[in-house]
Amino acid sequence: MPHLRIEYSPNTDEHADILRVCQAAHQAMKESKVFPLAGIRVRAFAATHCIVADDHPDNNFMAMTLSVGTGRERSTLKAAGDLVFAGVQQALAKQLATPHFALSLEIREISADLSWKDTPIHSRLSS
User: Fold this and answer.
1) Contact indicator for 76, 14 with CB cutoff of 8 Å
2) Which of 64, 70, 83, 115 has the most CB atoms lying inside 10 A of its own CB?
3) What does the pLDDT read at residue 33?
4) Is residue 118 within 8 Å of 76, Cβ to Cβ?
5) How far is Cα 35 from Cα 68, in angstroms, rounded to an integer?
6) Are 89 and 96 in contact (CB under 8 A)?
7) pTM of the full predicted structure?
8) DSSP string of 77-116?
């Protein structure tokens, strides 16, 4: 952990560079110095079916969920979330300037005893 899942409306990628959004989020997660590099994952998926707000054809959304392990201070997570959100806002400035785009971020803490991992990447990046 941390894993950032980005879900977006299917037509968002016609107006935004989704890879750039992923890169901005990844960079912010690294810069926060809160999360181990080996644990960072950023992945994005288009929602196959969705209705956004009033179903206006120009409406788009991007909903981000950052799952992290427990044990960090709330203020530390808030600061990291602020960095990630600001980085993504910058990458989506054009879309956010329209009246048809919605961006959100939620941080969820995952209990260690309910999370299984087998991750040799950690060993490689820790040496």
Assistant:
1) no
2) 64
3) 95
4) no
5) 9
6) yes
7) 0.90
8) HHHHHHHHHHHHHHHTHHHHTSTTEEEEEEEEEE-GGG--
Sheet holding 101-110, edge to edge: 41-46, 3-8, 60-69, 101-110
Largest CA distance in the chain: 52
116 Ramachandran zone, left/alpha/beta (phi>0; psi -120 to 50): beta
Could you list the beta-strand ranges (E) of 1-74: 3-8, 41-46, 60-69
Q: Are 41 and 78 in contact (CB under 8 A)?
A: no
Lookup: tokens for 72:
């960090």
- Residue 127 has what pLDDT? 58
The residue type at 82: D
Q: Give the residue ranges of the chain where pLDDT is below 50.
A: none
Condensed to tens digits (0 to 9), the pLDDT of residues 34-47 reads 999 999 999 999 99
